[in-house]
Amino acid sequence: MPLAEVADIQLDYERSGSGEPLLLIMGMSGTALHWGEPFLAELRREFEVIVFDHRGVGASTQLHGAVTIAQMAEDASGLLSAIGIDSAHVLGISMGGMIAQELALAHPGQIRTLTLGCTYCGGEGSALAAPEVMQRLGEAMMSGDRQLALRVAWEINVSAQFAADADAYARFLAISEQRAVAVPVVMAQLQACTAHDTRERLAGLQADTLVIHGSADQLLPALNGRLIASLIPGSELEMLEDIGHLFFWERPQYAAELIINHSAVHA
Description:
It is a single chain. The protein has one domain (3-265): Rossmann fold (3-Layer(aba) Sandwich). α2 packs across α3 (95-106) and α4 packs antiparallel against α5. It has 267 residues and is of the alpha/beta class. It contains eleven helices and eight strands.
């Protein structure tokens, strides 16, 4: 993956496919590889797909200390400018959806359409993962047992039925082995997510917006998707029944179709 000069940092990115540009913004502890080939392959049929690693991840500039969602939104904006793209369709999932909210609010002219997946706006009525879910994840991450941490992360991020899919888990493990994200970076991202709050500003979001959420999401409960859709004027909500946080792993073809159709309707 090449490196783009974005302000005072470098971001590792990749462009593939053809068509109108689609910027994908990954979530907490994820890398550009975590989109999964089945989902990316579907998107490449209609878009030039741009994926990248956040600061502190992969070959992007190392992260030392804290980072905010707004800073990462400026990174995404700067990446588009650095690679010569005036505007793009944007998909952000989880933490990436928080970044996409800030990007759309700060730089509306860069957004053709916006898709917010399995994400959170903060403020009254929103909810992070239940304490028992966070405790289980935290204990696994701090155990020193990388295999345990990956297994628990997998089980929290997908539905119970999909978690039992051995082939899917093998693909997830292979990706995690290729490009690990350091625990201090994950913790800095977690703190950024906890501080995120766009609730009172979403009424001013101008982009044509699709909200996608799985009803079985343990990491960011489904009420967050419903709340965000209620706050963004004219937005559409697609609730995926019995699907977990990583909806694009569980339903890659359908998720891609939703994004393709959304971009076409609002072209």
